[in-house]
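Hi W., the beta-D-glucopyranose complex you wanted:
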Amino acid sequence: MTTPPPTSPAASTPAPSTLAPAGLRCAGLRCAHLVDPLGVSPGRVRLSWVLEGAGAGRAQRAYQVVLATDAARLARGEDLWWDSGRVESPASADIAYAGRPLAHGGRYAWKVRVWDQNGTAAGWSDPAWFEVELNQTDGWHASWIGLGRVRESAGPPAQTGPPDPVATALNPAPYLRRAFGVGQPVASARLYVTALGLYEARLNGHRVGDRFLTPGWTDYTQRIPYQTYDVTGLLAEGENVIGAILADGWYAGFFGYDAKHAGAHYGTAPELLAQLVITFRDGTGQEIVTDEQWQARLAAIRHADLLMGERHDLRLEPRGWDAPGFDAAGWRSVRCRGRDSRPLVADPGPPVRVTEEITPRSITRDADGRHIIDLGQNLTGWLRIRVDGPPGASVRVRHGEVLADDGSLYTENLRTARQTDEFITGGGPEVLEPRFTLHGFRYAEITKYPGDLDAADVVARVVHSDIAAAGSFGSSEEWLDRLFRNIDWGQRGNFISVPTDCPQRDERLGWLGDAQIFARTACYNRDVAAFFGKWLDDVADAQLPSGAFTDVAPRLNLAGAGAPAWGDAGVIVPWTVWKMYGDRGILQRHFGAMTAWMDFIERANPDYLRARELGNGYNDWLAPGADDTPRELLATAYWAHDAALMAEIADAIGRADDAAGYRALGSKIRAAFAEAFVAGDGQVASGTQTAYVLGLHMHLVPDELRASAADHLVAAIRRADWHLTTGFVGVGYILPVLSSTGHTGVAYRLLEQQSQPSWRYMVEAGATTIWERWDGWTTERGFQSAWMNSFNHYALGSVGEWLYRFLLGIDQEPDAAGFGQLLLRPHPGGRLSWARGSYRSVRGPISSGWERAVDRFTLRVELPPNVMASVCVPSDHAAEVRDATGSPPASVGSFPGIRGVQEAVFHVGPGTHEFSGPPVTDL
Ligand code: BGC
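Structure:
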């Protein structure tokens, strides 16, 4: 057991409100959840800030936002495009722009100030800014260019034996360039660029920006995202060269599990669309667009594919091709075609970046000279390898998540994904690194590395959507801290433009079921507001004309629609984003899609039992043993849940009539559910853990039977010898349900269970991410069937929500959204002697830490300005609990659901607060 980090006595005393009101500062300004975005759709301009400054009782009573076309005008308060005036409101997020119409391509600076609870104004914030996207159709003057489908020289060198169908379906990556002159000093320049496929943009010998896998994945038949780069500093007077490398990516490459290719998804060959807009100091401008003036050729990248990997022949790299002074003789003219009406949208999501580099934990060499690298962490990305040798060496890198018993790389669970990079060296010191692929791996096997491979020559580059960490967790149990990290790593490895199921095998799809069960955990772990905002457009794009949400988004022909707990993500995820970030914009944008979904279900199920139109009906996917939860039960429970969430959603966006309609619908579904599935003694049909969990979580068991239904759930868990029997659907809610019905002790038993199925089993078996299956590997049997056995699937990591909301107690009042009104009710228990953690909310960082000793329970919480909380301290003698000033609780109540256990309730505001009192024997 580890000891808790020390709490300094000074820090544990609530800070007196000695700071002058001017100490309250507005910081962290964002637009559309992004910091100073270069491309935002005018309809998505919603602003937020956080308040900083120590001291108690610091609340925002009013705010004022002003916006101008540049920082100088903003500073002078001249020509304001928007002055909100003083708005009496504590809101600091989701402030919709309400000024003059914003111009496409325009740049705007804005700032904010607030008044505190005493009416004293704080100073203006530093300015932030954003740029509005180009007009989605008219703003573009560029044409699509590419080389068409090029067959020659693709794939590895000819081998004997039958042709390899994968190799023949892989394409070389075209390099494209255009030289142009710049005759005057440049004031500013923007590159608007996208591809059907993936692009890497180059300007005068430099890579443009630090994003990878651009433009990201959407359904390219519905909308094409693009990025905007500030390239002012990369241009010079005289000759300039703009270039790009294209790869197949999601557009024309392998992904999903049908061993297809060649246009099965979107198209057969990648294309580029780019518009470089230069503004000169004298106010005039110049535009360079993709058109027939560009030239192209094939070069070092013989193929590049998301699933299969890359092959580079570095001897073929045309050095200097993207810089002035290069002789482009022999380059071909490009194929050029005009744009169609598909909207080009500024990418609303966070960029995919290399977020970390990891050096090998060990490198071993087998008898055949192959190196096996162990990174100590299952991750998503690729290796960067330094080499210095003769030209023509053929270095091969294969990637896998685990090793087989004999120490070799285990790749059977990748199915048809090859995850293999090959490099033919050009000679001399070189860097071998792919950039248009993704591998899910902890281990790599390197063959034919010339010379000795040293740990300093290899680094793993971790690649994913750059979603900043928002949560932290630490406790007295090391295995639990590892579980927390595994959950986070699972999220990092799978949040790549869309939330995928897994990053390694031939699948990597945006499964809705996985996303909805994990959504709340995802928001606590990392800032995913913009990420989910982008993906929910994909979900809406994928919706069928019937109203059915699909199983995966972006939509593919290979999956269905309407599946319970999968399609329902179309309601659950927007609701979660609103709840966590207070974002009503997302609700407004998707309200139509959500109502179409609700109508789709109701049309098919007029008797309020959801038995029809269940699509692929995955039910409680991958429940250990038999999945005995009745399909209609699970489906109806989710429908009732949707109706309840829809009522809240409608209320949040001022649609009272719709809210009433959904409440009425909810009661009918609940009544039908109770009638069909709930017995008079609180038993729920089938008696599976998931049946009870859904009945209780979704409030389908009548109130008077809740306690007995919860007892039946506990009995079912006892019958399973204190193990879970839940699959993807039940797993996220089981611990929350146990805690909210007064069975936190049972929740801890499941959490701490060492034999499988359990989270701890995975951790103790050496997992560094969350497995797809509880028994992905067992001591007795070894690996599960290779057919479906990912070691990086986040769904079972949805237990993270309970760690934050219950174990640490960082939660909101039931009706609140956006973390202004907290309900901090930690649930200590199990073998934990202390735990502490934090969540960086839209209102600022919130932390909670508790410690249990034989005679004392101590809780320390910290709240940012403009946040109020009811803090509930569990205790056997709640009246004796005191805060750090010695004050007693505002009230004493019984701890929810548990007879004999009390809680001391304190109402507090911003600052640090410590409480202590007699401990609680058992929750
Ligand atoms: C995926 C899952 C997904 C499921 C649907 C699997 O192949 O990996 O995570 O939700 O299919 O049942």
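Residues 362 and 555 are 41 Å apart (CA to CA).

W.
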